[in-house]
Design a protein that fits this description.
Chain A: InterPro entries: CbtB_put. The complex is a heterodimer of chains A (67) and B (267). By secondary structure, chain A is mainly alpha-helical. Chain A has 3 helices and no strands. Chain B folds into 2 domains: 169 residues, no CATH class; 65 residues. The two termini of chain B are 13 Å apart. Classes of the chains: A mainly alpha (67), B mainly alpha (267).
Chain lengths: 67, 267
């Protein structure tokens, strides 16, 4: 059974409630991580200003407003 | 992920994993760009910042006034931290792109998966980078009034949302035409829908210009262009890496589905 087809479109999982809830949780986690990089000043990371200062140059060059 | 002989759709987890990996790659690549081209501008801006604050604090010091407080992270540390920041930022955007792909793939009117994922990445670049860049261009150190940071942060987040809504409005507008409408008319309708939202956003959000008279114009320009280049590097490599990883996933599933007994496919 040789299937010599052109590139078959890649299916994606049906958007079931389960996928939706998982996606919502993932997005929430990712946004928290984005907050940590872009805006946190120690309140979430509990590292004082260490992480904030460490990622200082990245924020400027990624275009996030900073001090 | 289970690779049965039946052609089952890849799971959200499989797609997400590829998005996160593509984001890590893209973040590191944009970190290389920002490190080699952006750091000299950051250094120059910090030199101006320090000269300004020294001139303000000690007008006639003995020439060598050290900062009272030791910085929490040295300049070298911040240059290394740049890669951490861009890598994490890339991972976030990769995860969001993979999630958007999973949820929106069926609504994108193309049978070509590569076009779908590249199109989503391009849309995100327009909405999250280009639209904000024109309204609130990035600023180097020494530019910006610290007392307005909350206002500027809220405005920046607002323009990100407006950028994404504008792209969405453009797609809706181009799809609102009748079925046989010519391609150029769809493009015009899409641009119009996009621009309406962008213009409303630009007008409603406050203007921010905190560049001092004395900050060198060429340094500001070069910094902003490099910052745009950093984001362009990130989204271009994210789109390509995610698309490439997805197509490998598709190929592997295809060959497993058609020849379950065949020799193992390189992963």
């Amino acid at each position: 059974m040789s299937k010599v087809q052109a590139v078959r479109p890649l299916n994606v999982p049906a958007v079931s409630p389960r996928v939706l809830w998982t996606a919502a949780a993932v997005v929430a986690g990712l946004l928290l991580l984005a907050y940590l990089v872009a805006f946190d000043q120690g309140a979430v990371s509990q590292s004082g200003m260490f992480l904030h200062e460490l990622m200082h140059d990245g924020r400027h060059l990624l275009g996030v407003p900073c001090h | 992920m289970s690779l049965t002989g039946r052609a089952a759709a890849p799971t959200y987890g499989a797609i997400l994993l590829r998005g996160l990996l593509a984001g890590l790659i893209a973040g590191l690549l944009s970190g290389v760009f920002a490190y080699s081209l952006g750091e000299p501008k950051v250094d120059a801006a910090i030199a101006i910042e320090e000269a300004n604050s020294q001139a303000a604090a000690t007008p006639a010091a003995d020439g060598h006034s050290h900062d009272e407080e030791e910085p929490l992270v040295s300049r070298d540390g911040q240059k290394g931290g740049l890669f951490l920041a861009t890598a994490l930022y890339g991972v976030v955007m990769g995860g969001l792109l993979a999630t958007a792909y999973t949820l929106l793939r069926r609504r994108l009117r193309t049978s070509d998966d590569s076009r779908a994922s590249l199109g989503l990445a391009a849309a995100a670049f327009v909405g999250l980078v280009l639209v904000p860049f024109v309204k609130y261009p990035p600023n180097p150190p020494a530019v910006g009034d610290p007392s307005t940071i909350n206002q500027r942060t809220i405005s920046y987040l607002s323009i990100l949302v407006i950028g994404l809504v504008a792209v969405w409005a453009g797609v809706l507008a181009s799809r609102s035409l009748r079925a046989g409408a010519p391609e150029w008319l769809r493009l015009v309708a899409g641009l119009a829908g996009f621009l309406v939202v962008v213009v409303i956003g630009y007008v409603l959000l406050p203007n921010i210009d905190e560049v001092s008279e004395t900050f060198p114009a060429s340094l500001l320009w070069n910094f902003r262009i490099t910052s745009l280049g950093t984001q362009a590097t990130l989204w271009l490599s994210l789109g390509i890496a995610f698309t490439a990883l997805l197509s490998r996933l598709g190929k592997r599933r295809e060959s497993v589905a058609s020849a379950p007994e065949a020799e193992s496919v390189p992963v």
